[in-house]
Predict the structure of Protoheme IX farnesyltransferase.
Amino acid sequence: MSDASINASTIRDDEAGFRDYFALLKPRVMSLVVFTALVGLVAAPVPVHPMIAFCAILFIAIGGGASGALNMWWDADIDRVMKRTRGRPIPAGKIEPGEALNLGLALSGFAVIMLALAANIFAGAFLAFTIFFYVVIYTMWLKRATPQNIVIGGAAGAFPPVIGWIAATGDMAIEPWLMFALTFMWTPPHFWALALFMRSDYDDAGVPMLTVTHGRRATRTHILVYTVLLAMLAVGAAFSGIGGPVYLAVSLVLNALFLRGAWRISRRDEDASEADNFLVERSFFRLSLLYLFLHFGAILVEAVLKPFGLGGW
């Protein structure tokens, strides 16, 4: 093979493809944004035209993806250090930081304007605030400044159901804020469990996660405390406008499992083998993913059943 062919092959390997740009939007996070926003929209007590609903969810998703691109642009330096993130498009050399910045800004403006036109101005403005909160308040400020980064910054990930509700109603109510609170209280134990078995990543990157600043024992205690508070909130929400018997049954089972997992983590012996601790922490982290999805799934079921007189109390 000639040198020219080798160079051409190398260039092709280094060029960004559709998958790289899509990865820049953090599709896993976007999927959670889409689902919780959809639940917020469907749970709203007003009918929404299917086309308006589709457009609203699409633009909320694009806004979430734009936040992800801007987050990757700003965090490119620590992403190169962390094992979990070094394969992302920017640290991998697939996409230039400037490209990520331009894409994030362009998609943010597009998503906000189009949501305002498709649904209402209030929804568009709230999406703009959410993007600002995630990128500026969390990514640029809190993430590297305080071990409470994920506690306060978790609000950004909890806003989508509120945006979905506003897109449907153009107004506020207590129900979307209960969904917000559910996600907000779930975020710390979810991410602290991840930090427990990925602690070396945050150490290497110099990110003041609770595991780094206060140690593993304190983090495990925090997980238990937040899980207890989360369980009370989650079960209590069953008796609100978004709850019902289906939600209550799902919530009781999930919170029993989640409390058991948090208790097991809190009782871990620091002298136990690293492999044993890893398995317990990782299993709790995986359960946390199922926990939020099934709670919102139950809220969605209750909302769908209500028109038939079957959902709610």
Observations:
- Confidence is low (pLDDT under 50) at residues 1-12.
- Residues 6 and 12 are 10 Å apart (CA to CA).
- The chain has two domains: 12-172, 173-313.
- Residues 274-305 form the longest helix (32 residues).
